[in-house]
Design a protein that fits this description.
CATH superfamily: Metal-dependent hydrolases
Strand order of the largest sheet: 1-2-3-4-5-6-7-8
Number of strands: 8
Order of helices and strands: EHHHEHEHEHEHHHEHHEHEHH
CATH architecture: Alpha-Beta Barrel
Structural class: alpha/beta
Number of helices: 14
CATH class: Alpha Beta
Strand content: 5-15%
Protein backbone atom coordinates (compact mmCIF):
# COMPACT_ATOMS: atom_id res chain seq x y z
CA UNK A 1 0.00 0.00 0.00
CA UNK A 2 1.53 3.31 -1.08
CA UNK A 3 1.47 6.40 1.08
CA UNK A 4 1.32 9.98 -0.11
CA UNK A 5 3.31 12.79 1.43
CA UNK A 6 2.79 16.54 1.33
CA UNK A 7 6.47 17.33 1.12
CA UNK A 8 7.21 20.58 -0.64
CA UNK A 9 9.46 20.50 -3.73
CA UNK A 10 11.61 22.99 -1.80
CA UNK A 11 12.87 20.18 0.44
CA UNK A 12 15.11 19.01 -2.39
CA UNK A 13 16.78 22.42 -2.86
CA UNK A 14 18.95 24.82 -0.93
CA UNK A 15 16.73 27.81 -0.15
CA UNK A 16 17.77 31.26 1.12
CA UNK A 17 15.13 33.69 2.40
CA UNK A 18 16.58 37.21 2.25
CA UNK A 19 13.91 38.98 4.33
CA UNK A 20 12.91 37.56 7.73
CA UNK A 21 11.93 40.10 10.39
CA UNK A 22 11.96 40.15 14.16
CA UNK A 23 9.73 41.99 16.60
CA UNK A 24 11.95 42.68 19.57
CA UNK A 25 10.10 43.55 22.81
CA UNK A 26 11.15 46.96 24.07
CA UNK A 27 11.72 45.63 27.58
CA UNK A 28 14.21 43.14 26.16
CA UNK A 29 15.89 45.78 24.00
CA UNK A 30 16.23 48.08 27.01
CA UNK A 31 18.53 45.56 28.67
CA UNK A 32 21.03 46.25 25.87
CA UNK A 33 20.90 50.01 26.43
CA UNK A 34 22.74 52.31 28.83
CA UNK A 35 21.12 55.10 30.78
CA UNK A 36 19.27 57.32 30.15
CA UNK A 37 18.01 55.28 27.18
CA UNK A 38 17.29 52.17 29.25
CA UNK A 39 14.87 53.92 31.60
CA UNK A 40 13.27 55.81 28.73
CA UNK A 41 12.62 52.67 26.69
CA UNK A 42 11.31 50.73 29.69
CA UNK A 43 8.87 53.48 30.70
CA UNK A 44 5.27 52.29 30.12
CA UNK A 45 4.41 55.37 28.05
CA UNK A 46 7.35 54.94 25.66
CA UNK A 47 6.95 54.11 21.98
CA UNK A 48 9.99 53.57 19.79
CA UNK A 49 8.68 55.70 16.93
CA UNK A 50 5.72 57.92 16.14
CA UNK A 51 3.13 55.43 14.93
CA UNK A 52 0.75 56.26 12.11
CA UNK A 53 -2.47 54.95 13.64
CA UNK A 54 -3.44 52.87 10.59
CA UNK A 55 -5.66 49.84 11.12
CA UNK A 56 -3.13 47.38 9.68
CA UNK A 57 -4.90 44.28 10.95
CA UNK A 58 -8.44 45.03 9.74
CA UNK A 59 -9.94 45.13 13.21
CA UNK A 60 -8.33 41.81 14.10
CA UNK A 61 -9.39 39.98 10.92
CA UNK A 62 -5.74 39.64 9.84
CA UNK A 63 -3.60 37.47 12.09
CA UNK A 64 -0.52 39.06 13.64
CA UNK A 65 2.36 36.59 13.76
CA UNK A 66 5.42 36.90 15.95
CA UNK A 67 8.82 35.29 16.39
CA UNK A 68 9.39 35.52 20.15
CA UNK A 69 12.57 33.46 20.18
CA UNK A 70 15.08 31.62 18.01
CA UNK A 71 13.39 28.25 18.46
CA UNK A 72 10.09 29.63 17.16
CA UNK A 73 11.83 31.21 14.17
CA UNK A 74 13.51 27.93 13.30
CA UNK A 75 10.24 26.01 13.65
CA UNK A 76 8.20 28.48 11.60
CA UNK A 77 10.68 29.37 8.85
CA UNK A 78 13.19 26.54 8.55
CA UNK A 79 10.93 23.59 9.38
CA UNK A 80 7.64 25.11 8.25
CA UNK A 81 8.77 26.73 5.00
CA UNK A 82 11.78 24.53 4.16
CA UNK A 83 14.08 27.54 4.30
CA UNK A 84 17.68 26.44 4.78
CA UNK A 85 19.17 29.86 5.48
CA UNK A 86 16.98 32.74 6.71
CA UNK A 87 18.64 36.15 6.42
CA UNK A 88 17.31 37.85 9.55
CA UNK A 89 16.98 41.54 10.29
CA UNK A 90 15.86 43.15 13.54
CA UNK A 91 13.53 45.51 11.59
CA UNK A 92 14.16 48.63 13.68
CA UNK A 93 12.40 51.68 12.24
CA UNK A 94 15.37 53.80 13.24
CA UNK A 95 14.84 56.46 10.59
CA UNK A 96 11.71 57.55 12.49
CA UNK A 97 13.54 58.11 15.78
CA UNK A 98 13.71 61.91 16.15
CA UNK A 99 16.80 62.10 18.39
CA UNK A 100 19.97 61.20 16.53
CA UNK A 101 21.79 60.06 19.67
CA UNK A 102 18.96 57.73 20.66
CA UNK A 103 18.81 56.29 17.14
CA UNK A 104 22.54 55.51 17.23
CA UNK A 105 22.30 53.92 20.66
CA UNK A 106 19.29 51.82 19.65
CA UNK A 107 21.13 50.75 16.48
CA UNK A 108 23.85 49.14 18.56
CA UNK A 109 21.34 47.58 20.93
CA UNK A 110 19.34 46.01 18.11
CA UNK A 111 22.46 44.52 16.55
CA UNK A 112 23.73 43.07 19.82
CA UNK A 113 20.30 41.63 20.57
CA UNK A 114 20.17 39.99 17.14
CA UNK A 115 23.56 38.38 17.68
CA UNK A 116 22.98 37.15 21.21
CA UNK A 117 19.42 35.89 20.89
CA UNK A 118 19.21 34.60 17.31
CA UNK A 119 22.36 34.31 15.22
CA UNK A 120 24.29 32.43 17.90
CA UNK A 121 21.48 29.90 18.38
CA UNK A 122 21.36 28.05 15.04
CA UNK A 123 24.06 27.39 12.47
CA UNK A 124 21.59 28.08 9.66
CA UNK A 125 20.77 31.61 10.77
CA UNK A 126 22.39 34.57 9.03
CA UNK A 127 21.84 38.26 9.75
CA UNK A 128 21.83 41.81 8.46
CA UNK A 129 23.17 44.50 10.77
CA UNK A 130 21.05 47.64 11.07
CA UNK A 131 22.31 51.21 10.76
CA UNK A 132 20.94 54.60 11.80
CA UNK A 133 20.99 56.83 8.73
CA UNK A 134 20.77 59.96 10.89
CA UNK A 135 24.52 59.69 11.48
CA UNK A 136 26.46 58.17 8.54
CA UNK A 137 29.75 58.31 10.46
CA UNK A 138 28.24 56.33 13.34
CA UNK A 139 26.73 53.92 10.82
CA UNK A 140 30.19 53.35 9.33
CA UNK A 141 31.60 52.75 12.82
CA UNK A 142 28.87 50.21 13.49
CA UNK A 143 29.66 48.39 10.26
CA UNK A 144 33.29 48.31 11.36
CA UNK A 145 32.31 47.01 14.82
CA UNK A 146 30.10 44.24 13.47
CA UNK A 147 32.23 43.26 10.50
CA UNK A 148 34.12 40.55 12.39
CA UNK A 149 30.90 38.67 13.21
CA UNK A 150 30.84 35.73 10.82
CA UNK A 151 27.03 35.43 10.85
CA UNK A 152 26.58 39.04 9.67
CA UNK A 153 26.16 39.00 5.89
CA UNK A 154 25.06 42.52 4.99
CA UNK A 155 23.79 45.94 6.03
CA UNK A 156 20.08 46.65 6.52
CA UNK A 157 19.16 50.25 5.62
CA UNK A 158 15.66 51.58 6.18
CA UNK A 159 15.09 53.93 3.26
CA UNK A 160 11.83 55.43 4.49
CA UNK A 161 12.26 58.59 6.50
CA UNK A 162 15.98 58.98 5.83
CA UNK A 163 17.13 62.54 6.38
CA UNK A 164 18.62 62.72 2.89
CA UNK A 165 18.14 60.57 -0.22
CA UNK A 166 20.54 57.70 0.23
CA UNK A 167 22.76 58.45 -2.75
CA UNK A 168 23.82 61.74 -1.16
CA UNK A 169 27.60 61.93 -0.77
CA UNK A 170 27.19 62.16 3.01
CA UNK A 171 26.46 58.43 2.94
CA UNK A 172 29.65 57.53 1.07
CA UNK A 173 31.40 56.86 4.37
CA UNK A 174 28.75 54.24 5.18
CA UNK A 175 29.01 52.59 1.77
CA UNK A 176 32.81 52.67 1.90
CA UNK A 177 32.78 50.82 5.22
CA UNK A 178 30.39 48.23 3.80
CA UNK A 179 32.51 47.75 0.68
CA UNK A 180 35.71 47.48 2.70
CA UNK A 181 34.24 44.59 4.68
CA UNK A 182 32.35 42.87 1.83
CA UNK A 183 29.01 43.59 3.48
CA UNK A 184 26.47 44.40 0.80
CA UNK A 185 23.49 46.73 1.20
CA UNK A 186 19.82 45.77 1.61
CA UNK A 187 17.27 48.60 1.44
CA UNK A 188 13.89 48.16 3.09
CA UNK A 189 10.99 50.62 3.21
CA UNK A 190 8.13 51.08 5.66
CA UNK A 191 4.45 51.87 5.21
CA UNK A 192 4.23 53.39 8.70
CA UNK A 193 4.94 56.87 9.99
CA UNK A 194 8.01 57.61 7.81
CA UNK A 195 5.85 57.59 4.67
CA UNK A 196 4.31 60.90 5.70
CA UNK A 197 7.74 62.52 5.50
CA UNK A 198 8.76 60.90 2.23
CA UNK A 199 5.74 61.35 0.02
CA UNK A 200 4.39 64.57 -1.50
CA UNK A 201 1.87 66.71 0.34
CA UNK A 202 -1.03 64.82 -1.26
CA UNK A 203 -0.47 61.96 1.16
CA UNK A 204 -2.12 64.09 3.87
CA UNK A 205 -5.43 63.20 2.21
CA UNK A 206 -4.86 59.43 2.15
CA UNK A 207 -7.66 57.89 4.21
CA UNK A 208 -7.07 54.16 3.74
CA UNK A 209 -4.02 52.12 4.70
CA UNK A 210 -4.36 50.23 1.42
CA UNK A 211 -3.35 53.37 -0.47
CA UNK A 212 -0.26 53.85 1.67
CA UNK A 213 0.66 50.18 1.47
CA UNK A 214 0.48 50.20 -2.34
CA UNK A 215 2.69 53.27 -2.70
CA UNK A 216 5.14 53.46 0.21
CA UNK A 217 7.65 50.72 -0.59
CA UNK A 218 8.10 51.28 -4.35
CA UNK A 219 8.22 55.04 -3.86
CA UNK A 220 11.04 54.77 -1.30
CA UNK A 221 12.94 52.38 -3.56
CA UNK A 222 12.46 54.53 -6.65
CA UNK A 223 13.83 57.55 -4.80
CA UNK A 224 16.76 55.54 -3.45
CA UNK A 225 17.64 53.97 -6.79
CA UNK A 226 17.49 57.31 -8.58
CA UNK A 227 19.57 59.01 -5.91
CA UNK A 228 22.22 56.27 -6.02
CA UNK A 229 22.56 56.53 -9.78
CA UNK A 230 22.43 60.30 -10.14
CA UNK A 231 25.14 60.59 -7.47
CA UNK A 232 27.23 57.82 -9.02
CA UNK A 233 27.23 55.57 -5.95
CA UNK A 234 27.60 52.28 -7.87
CA UNK A 235 30.45 53.79 -9.88
CA UNK A 236 32.18 54.92 -6.68
CA UNK A 237 31.74 51.46 -5.15
CA UNK A 238 31.83 49.00 -8.06
CA UNK A 239 32.21 45.95 -5.80
CA UNK A 240 29.15 46.83 -3.69
CA UNK A 241 25.76 45.23 -4.38
CA UNK A 242 22.39 46.80 -3.56
CA UNK A 243 19.27 44.74 -2.81
CA UNK A 244 15.74 46.13 -2.61
CA UNK A 245 13.37 44.33 -0.23
CA UNK A 246 9.56 44.24 -0.04
CA UNK A 247 8.46 46.07 -3.16
CA UNK A 248 8.22 43.18 -5.60
CA UNK A 249 9.36 43.65 -9.19
CA UNK A 250 6.75 45.57 -11.16
CA UNK A 251 8.33 48.96 -10.49
CA UNK A 252 11.74 47.91 -11.82
CA UNK A 253 11.11 47.85 -15.61
CA UNK A 254 9.84 51.42 -15.47
CA UNK A 255 12.98 52.52 -13.64
CA UNK A 256 15.31 50.68 -16.01
CA UNK A 257 14.05 52.49 -19.05
CA UNK A 258 13.05 55.87 -17.59
CA UNK A 259 16.48 56.29 -16.01
CA UNK A 260 18.10 55.41 -19.34
CA UNK A 261 16.02 58.04 -21.13
CA UNK A 262 16.72 60.76 -18.57
CA UNK A 263 20.42 59.96 -18.57
CA UNK A 264 20.48 60.13 -22.35
CA UNK A 265 19.11 63.68 -22.20
CA UNK A 266 20.86 64.99 -19.07
CA UNK A 267 24.20 63.20 -18.71
CA UNK A 268 25.92 66.20 -17.18
CA UNK A 269 23.59 65.89 -14.17
CA UNK A 270 25.02 62.43 -13.43
CA UNK A 271 28.68 63.10 -14.30
CA UNK A 272 30.17 60.14 -12.41
CA UNK A 273 28.36 57.51 -14.44
CA UNK A 274 30.39 55.80 -17.14
CA UNK A 275 27.65 53.41 -18.26
CA UNK A 276 23.91 53.60 -18.73
CA UNK A 277 21.77 53.34 -15.57
CA UNK A 278 20.40 50.04 -16.85
CA UNK A 279 23.89 48.54 -16.95
CA UNK A 280 24.58 49.45 -13.32
CA UNK A 281 21.21 48.07 -12.25
CA UNK A 282 21.77 44.78 -14.03
CA UNK A 283 25.30 44.42 -12.65
CA UNK A 284 24.93 45.56 -9.02
CA UNK A 285 21.23 45.65 -8.09
CA UNK A 286 19.04 42.77 -6.85
CA UNK A 287 15.33 42.54 -6.10
CA UNK A 288 13.40 40.44 -3.61
CA UNK A 289 10.32 38.59 -4.80
CA UNK A 290 7.94 39.64 -2.02
CA UNK A 291 5.25 40.81 -2.46
CA UNK A 292 4.53 38.64 -5.46
CA UNK A 293 2.47 40.44 -8.07
CA UNK A 294 -0.90 38.89 -8.92
CA UNK A 295 -1.75 39.63 -12.55
CA UNK A 296 -4.86 38.07 -14.01
CA UNK A 297 -2.62 36.42 -16.58
CA UNK A 298 0.41 34.66 -14.96
CA UNK A 299 2.33 35.10 -18.21
CA UNK A 300 2.53 38.81 -17.45
CA UNK A 301 4.46 38.13 -14.25
CA UNK A 302 6.89 36.02 -16.25
CA UNK A 303 7.27 38.92 -18.69
CA UNK A 304 8.22 41.25 -15.82
CA UNK A 305 10.68 38.74 -14.36
CA UNK A 306 12.27 38.30 -17.78
CA UNK A 307 12.71 42.05 -18.18
CA UNK A 308 14.25 42.44 -14.72
CA UNK A 309 16.34 39.31 -15.24
CA UNK A 310 16.17 36.03 -13.36
CA UNK A 311 19.78 36.55 -12.21
CA UNK A 312 18.60 39.57 -10.20
CA UNK A 313 15.66 37.88 -8.46
CA UNK A 314 15.89 36.73 -4.82
CA UNK A 315 13.38 34.70 -2.83
CA UNK A 316 11.90 36.55 0.15
CA UNK A 317 8.98 35.78 2.46
CA UNK A 318 8.85 38.91 4.69
CA UNK A 319 7.80 36.57 7.51
CA UNK A 320 6.23 37.13 10.05
CA UNK A 321 4.53 40.25 8.69
CA UNK A 322 0.82 39.91 7.96
CA UNK A 323 1.36 40.29 4.20
CA UNK A 324 4.20 37.75 3.91
CA UNK A 325 4.52 35.37 0.93
CA UNK A 326 4.84 31.64 1.42
CA UNK A 327 7.88 30.51 -0.62
CA UNK A 328 5.68 28.07 -2.55
CA UNK A 329 4.04 31.06 -4.29
CA UNK A 330 7.25 31.96 -6.08
CA UNK A 331 8.37 28.37 -6.49
CA UNK A 332 5.17 27.32 -8.26
CA UNK A 333 5.74 30.10 -10.77
CA UNK A 334 9.37 29.11 -11.26
CA UNK A 335 8.46 25.44 -11.80
CA UNK A 336 5.78 26.42 -14.31
CA UNK A 337 7.86 28.74 -16.47
CA UNK A 338 11.59 28.17 -15.93
CA UNK A 339 14.20 25.39 -16.13
CA UNK A 340 15.67 23.89 -12.98
CA UNK A 341 18.93 25.82 -13.28
CA UNK A 342 17.05 29.13 -13.20
CA UNK A 343 14.93 27.94 -10.28
CA UNK A 344 18.03 27.00 -8.28
CA UNK A 345 19.48 30.43 -8.96
CA UNK A 346 16.44 32.25 -7.62
CA UNK A 347 16.07 29.98 -4.59
CA UNK A 348 19.66 30.35 -3.42
CA UNK A 349 22.49 31.03 -5.88
CA UNK A 350 21.50 34.64 -6.62
CA UNK A 351 21.38 35.44 -2.90
CA UNK A 352 24.83 33.95 -2.47
CA UNK A 353 26.05 36.27 -5.24
CA UNK A 354 24.18 39.35 -3.99
CA UNK A 355 25.44 39.10 -0.41
CA UNK A 356 28.57 36.99 -0.92
CA UNK A 357 27.03 34.56 1.56
CA UNK A 358 29.15 32.07 3.44
CA UNK A 359 26.94 28.97 3.48
Amino acid sequence: MSTQTNRSPLTENTVVDVDVHLRIPLDDLAEYCDEPYRSTIKHPTYTAVNRSGWDRYMGGNIQKESLPDADTLYEKVCDGFDIDYPLINAFPVLASVPEDDRAVHMMRAYNDYLLDNYLDEYDEFRGLLSVATQDPEAAAEEIERMSSEEKIEGVYVLNSGAHLPLGHPDFDVMYRAAADHDLHIAFHASAGAPFARDFPIQDNAINRFMTTHVLAHPWAHMLTMTSLLVNGTPEKFPDLNFTFLEAGLSWVPYMLFRLNKEYGMRRREAPLLEKSPEEYIREQFYFASQPMGEPNDPQHLKDIIDIVGTDSLLLATDYPHWDFDHPDALDRHLRQFYPEETREGVLADNAVEAFDLSL
